[in-house]
DNA sequence: CGGCATCCACATGGATACTG
DNA sequence: CAGTATCCATGTGGATGCCG
């Protein structure tokens, strides 16, 4: 910040070609506490309204969900579409780029299920 | 915290069986700014000493590296072995569990390389 | 070499309440 | 329904310096 043309932790233009850079940048995306859950939810339950998504994520406050969705929008992961004005309805959905996170989420889930033991069958 | 037998953001016993939980827990691990890089570095460059690792990660301060390694140790991702006492040497390496993060890192890298454009060839 | 001790700045998440 | 507005606690990273 206050350096060049970048603002904060910007869109999707961080790094050039270095391998680990793509990794870190991706980490800064799915490392946010709720981001992976939101993406997972949208992957599974299709397009969702704000409160429906809030229900699906379960445990998130509206402020944080709002913040997260804004972040995900800016990064081109989710889309926000206003469905109707009078009974005000919107729908959040994943972009192509967002759907491409599927394998990442899945790898994470696989690892988690393999190594995060359920609190009672700890071996060694 | 201050609930039951857990302390802070503990070892590896968060969630029981729910799918998204494994995802979130994994995110809390690889979401720390330097964790994925450290793991990646150790995956690539084999066992490393503290300063060698610091070099390899490039840009991290000793305090943060120290914190990160402690965290990763507690979670059973890396091992710390004292090689020699007199010229004091240690070596950090990945555990089996740590190596299993390979696919996750890889999925992240793949996504990153596909969607994080290098700041000059943005094609909307 | 391999850290730890401080201190600090800022990001992130959360609770609660209120609005169009 | 779909958020915004506050305010606050904590987490997380970073700079610098010192130590065994």
UniProtKB/TrEMBL annotation, chains A, B:
UniProt-recorded Gene Ontology molecular function terms: DNA binding
Any one Pfam family match given in the protein's UniProt record, by short name: HxlR
Record carries keyword Transcription: yes
Domain HTH hxlR-type: 21-120
Keywords of this entry: DNA-binding, Transcription, Transcription regulation
Entry keyword annotation includes Disulfide bond: no
Protein name as it appears in the record: Winged helix-turn-helix transcriptional regulator
